[in-house]
Protein 1
Amino acid sequence: MSNNNFAIANEASLYIHIPFCQTKCFYCDFNTYAKLESLIPSYINALESEAIFWSNYFNKTEIKSIFIGGGTPSYIPSKYIEKLMETIFYKFKLTKDSEITLESNPNDLTKSNLKTYYKSGINRISLGVQTFDNSLLKVLGRRHSSQNAIEAYYLIKESGFKNINLDLMYGLPNQSTDKWVDTLYQLLSLKPLHVSMYALTLEEGTPMNEWIKEGKLPKQNDDIVADMYSKTEEIMSKNNYLHYEISNWAISGFESKHNINYWKNKTYIGIGPGAHSYIPPYRFSNIKSPREYTKHLNNLNLDEFNFRLINNEKLKFIDTSEIINTELEMSETIMLGLRLNSGIDIEQFKIRFDINPLDKYSNNFDELNNHNLIEITEDNIKLTPKGRLLSNEVFLKFF
Ligand code: SF4
């Protein structure tokens, strides 16, 4: 294959989408489906075909991180994850430092599937806890209890995994700041190395959004959500967690390589339906339907085609594509970099774009600085605590 009109990076991340869930949570609008289990075997073959396709271009690229997400990867039989990982290890260049994460649901984990994941080369487990409050888990439509989550966490540890992320959500209907703080202390008692905490966002078309519109559930008050966030920052920092990104905390040395690659606006390849890729200068997304995706990929003759996005002869499994010009790449690099608590590295920006970000966006930065939303040091530009609370407004300045 020689028709490369995109850049082959030295390093990249790989995202693998598993679009299956046992049940659909009430708040979720991800591209994931319940009752589609019959598709799993052919779907995994399709994923492997897409992985092989990309490996033809990226076989010399060091894959710094892999994230198997979804959906619920732990819901499908672990033999499929094992098969998939064999192909990935065979086709891509991974090192002993590559971070390989699998997303999981507390109810799915057993000694046996954790052993398979470990043997397959997975070295990080992300556990979807969301809250330790059983009544709120019911409001969310989750299928596990707080006790299930705690047991699953210890089982993961006993199975040899050190690097564990816990996913939590705050700003839930009927959640008081005190209830959230209780969850935070339960979380801290487990001593995970990494924690992601996101405020609930209400998505159109989800049952939860409808119930709130109909007044069957109360909408969370923005001031209370901001208060929860401030409390989180305070409590996590007292307990030695680095707040390295707006919604992510880690014990030093365990910041997620996969997330950092996104926030540094570097190359990532997304495989699976609805997955997004950024292979400069292209950003594109795959078709969303798992059935259509599986059909196209399983009919693909890997020797027959080239990647010709420029000529608009898109591959059938690709849905949307756009060329990211330098202007847009710069503003996205600013926006994503500001998410990191280390901020934008001025020198790195200058090397990448041949311009000082402080000159390029002088008006924006002056205004944000005057409002105490950013802080400029000799080396970095970063959000202040006030800027983190108002981050969406800050990001809008660059678009
Ligand atoms: S388990 Fe995750 S992906 Fe599946 S429905 Fe619930 S929130 Fe969505």
Note: Residues 40-58 form the longest helix (19 residues).
Protein 2
Amino acid sequence: MTNSVWQPGPVDAVREAEAVVVGGGIAGVAAALYLRERGLRPVLVEAKTVAAGASGRNAGFVLTGTAEHYVAAVERYGHDRARLAWSASVANRARLLAVAESLGVPLERCGSMLACVDADEAAAARVSARLLAEDGFEGRFESSDPLRRGFVGALVKPGDAALDPVRLVQALSRASGAAILERCPVYHVAPGVIWSAAGEVRAPLVIVAAGPHTPHLLPPLAGTIAPVRAQMLATGPGPRVLDTLVYANYGYDYMRQLPDGRFLAGGSRDHAVAEEVGFEDRVTAPVQEAIAAFMRRHFPDIGAPVAARWSGVMEFTADLLPLVGPVPGMPGVYVCAGFSGHGLAFALEAAARVVACALDGASPGVFDLDR
Ligand SMILES: Cc1cc2nc3c(=O)[nH]c(=O)nc-3n(C[C@H](O)[C@H](O)[C@H](O)COP(=O)(O)OP(=O)(O)OC[C@H]3O[C@@H](n4cnc5c(N)ncnc54)[C@H](O)[C@@H]3O)c2cc1C
């Protein structure tokens, strides 16, 4: 919203900053934190409130790896790039667990399992486990279901973890020491300046981490990031039935039980791929029913009724890897976005790389948007 000259409001406000970050999701607050560690005090500008986007709506799975089984990543990227992408997520998990611990964000070190729903997926998991072992990564294949819940095998990663994503993002934002402008949409980004509802912020360095909205602010990146909706549900508290993170059906379905007994389930986007695109924050009956059916198929003993349903908008790139680096034709403007449903697997490492890229000229490596 803008203000006319007759309305009260900061039409003429101009701030000077050493750096400005657009977006208060996990990528933006992590970038602000790493700027602070390099001695800069950024201004962070957020259209709604910190963690209002996907970063506050996700399942809280801190997984290693890309969205697919490792064997599929090797096929998609080639072995060297797949190894680099996986290494980046391993580095990300180490960063995330360390910073969460240091900031007092509760962590569940519960591990994860990629639970296979059919023989084809089990075959992919088996080959993935071999490739992961050859490349020195964690991942153990089990040919029968370790949970005895109707899966046909699993790839187990004991080092994965879970947390409350809102607590994480809020803790990172406080630790960053950034001057935070909330309820303050940015309308336009140009080299050295952004225009927002609170006026201009001038800074030699601009980092845009606006999730699925990123291309609206960075025209050279038009068409590189697609908005994809994800839906979840939560039951009320019930007896403990699950002690690990379940990421199943090629990642299309996921489940977790919170320490207080509430059971979380999400995904089932494969039931409505064409409908689950765009920016609309809404739940739909077909996807919610599919999520509930998957949950009840494997956990028929969950008695507690569904108590909450929600959606969030993810930001997918064509190759499912984040986009990090200088924006072509916009000197001093950098992007850190495109986590393709895996922000907790990549965003801290991506934020560290975008800061190193901007301040030291370091390469963003496998995230380089010039790929
Ligand atoms: C239901 C669901 C479950 C998920 N589960 C997991 C999971 O378990 N593990 C995992 O790793 N990932 C998961 N994800 C994906 C993960 O949440 C995202 O990858 C991650 O949050 C993206 O972070 P981000 O900072 O890039 O974007 P966002 O969190 O979307 O943050 C972008 C911010 O920019 C702000 N913004 C946008 N436009 C403007 C503007 N013009 N001016 C100012 N601010 C602006 C937005 O308001 C928003 O706060 C899930 C996502 C969803 C929706």
Note: The chain has eight helices and 21 strands.
Protein 3
Amino acid sequence: MSQTADVRMQILEANRKAAEALRRRFSQEKTLVVNLISSPGAGKTTLLEATVARLAGKLRTAVLVGDIATERDADRIRRLGLPAYQILTGGACHLDARQVEGALARAGFGALDMLFIENVGNLICPTSYDLGEDFKVVLLSLTEGDDKPFKYPAIFTKASVAVLTKVDLQNIVDFDVEAVETQIRTLNPQAQVFRVSAKTGEGMEAWCRTLELALAAKRA
Ligand SMILES: Nc1nc2c(ncn2[C@@H]2O[C@H](COP(=O)(O)OP(=O)(O)OP(=O)(O)O)[C@@H](O)[C@H]2O)c(=O)[nH]1
Ligand SMILES: [Mg+2]
């Protein structure tokens, strides 16, 4: 094995241990944790704004956001009056479990029903890093093209939920929704796929209901 491959394995192994500790903690605290992954601009923060706004009345929610630079996304959530903490990766293209651990210690969210982690905008790097989440959600916007699941198979294989975002643009862009769903189901037959527009609200109810059911299952 090359030295680079060896170092990478050590990093992933250290991350796996940190993620396991987080998963034990979230399990004890009965907090549902969702890790959102997509390319830049697919609509992660917009979906979260719409999601936490809907759930906030009945559930204690908070958001951790990873970006290379700026507090912009955390500010967007805080503007809604909801707790958010920005993790600045300083160049890294993904979040790791130690960063999540450190951010939780500093954020002081208190007891939570749901914690959303918005990963750094990238369809590749975040795939390999477990953050102790209950499940990964991959977002694919209609403006990105309908060939993406087969071109970036790892994340579509690992994410148990896929959200096709910006479906309000369906009549403007050439995007074969059925073909994409077929690609996703070929890679992951168990995947749940949602068609959502955070702008119009289409699909939001089904997406939020799935989150609530997952929380109920975790508490059972
Ligand atoms: N038409 C339409 N535009 C949307 C929708 N959701 C998000 N957008 C737009 O897409 C752009 C990017 O949205 P963000 O939510 O910032 O995307 P993001 O994935 O958080 O981006 P990064 O954090 O930079 O990776 C913004 O201009 C949004 O207004 C949607 O449902 N419909
Ligand atoms: Mg964002």
Note: Residues 44-45, 73, 118 surround magnesium ion (ligand 2) (CB under 6 Å).
